[in-house]
Amino acid sequence: MKRRDFLMSSLALFALSALPKLTLAEAIAVPDAVKAKVNTANKLGFGFMRLPLKNPDDQTSIDYKTLDKMVDLFLARGFTYFDTAWMYMGYESEVALRKSLVERYPRDKFTVASKLPIGFLKSKEEQEEIFNKQLEKTGLEYFDYYLVHNVNANTIGNARKYDSFKFVADKKKEGKVKHIGFSFHDSPELLEEVLKEHPEVEFVQLQINYVDWDNASIQSRRCYEIALKYNKPVIVMEPVKGGTLANLPPAVEKVFKEAEPNMSPASWAIRYAASLEGVMMVLSGMSTLEQVEDNTAYMQNFKSLTAQEMKVIEKAVETLHASVAISCTGCQYCVEWCPMKIAIPSYFALYNAEKQEISNKPFTAQKMYYANLAKTHGKASACVQCHRCEKHCPQHIEIVKWLKEVAKTFEA
Ligand code: SF4
Ligand code: SF4
User: What does pTM read for this prediction?
Assistant: First the structure.
């Protein structure tokens, strides 16, 4: 039996009512300053991080014949935004963008976003070297959008030490970048700190999808709210959670198919993100021509989700949550008793999200969030099995047992 089927059948005994619920996005007020910066048309961006490959074991073996067709169709249907980064596709993504886009289309037909890889930096000077190399790799004279890449608890130190935000702001002054922002993978608290420090940024790139919206660790909704509080429009990454929401368990897919037999599961996920009023762009890392066909078809004449459609998503989320491994409600009652300061509910939320991912992914956002949290909290493996926490858990969760599973999943 496949892992997901096993979870669906054996774990449905957990009480659904105890699990986090999706909150309707319409409840969030969007400032006029953000609305003014958001164009409701053409909100789909082509992410160059999961390109078609000739050899699935070699990220650099890009299938240019297929990629060219994908780029042609994307542009023909009126979309213009392309997103790349220094290390995507084994450092070949920016080169692929040059070959498939820049060398085949006039500059006014597209916009390009790339990013400064702060996690990789070893010196301040390296920023200039990388930036110039990025222009060379892409064949561009300027980037339309340039982001400080992947700001989180682990990387913010480098950004501060090397003055990375000033670096990108200086590039804007030089005219080599049109708009500056940053991509972010961490807590709403850190997001607020960074936005206070850097009022000059024009937008924020966040992980938002209907599963992570109220996930206790990823906290997409809270991060979205913080971005709006600082009048920043949002670019959404991982709307389909790295393909997970396109390959749903049968019971969840059935919910969508019953509502709209002809719409793909991915369409629900991308439309969900695009329906958020403060979102200026939704990135999709497309790997096949069929995916471009599908995504561009429903996004060409984009319509926000109706209240009825939002209810379908809520039902799908409930069905998906029925497959979670640990029925933790995130009440935090256990936390204060732990002598090792283990982030018990946050780790459980990440573990549940990890188990809902499609299998065999070498990288997941959960792994990164776990590493970030473990910097300031005890790791799951630090548990000394005193069982104090379990005495205070209203859900009677075997915390010690599950922490061992968490450690196996995230610390291996
Ligand atoms: S059993 Fe482990 S997680 Fe629970 S309080 Fe003790 S050390 Fe913390
Ligand atoms: S007390 Fe139980 S339900 Fe509450 S956060 Fe801790 S593990 Fe989760």
Answer: 0.79
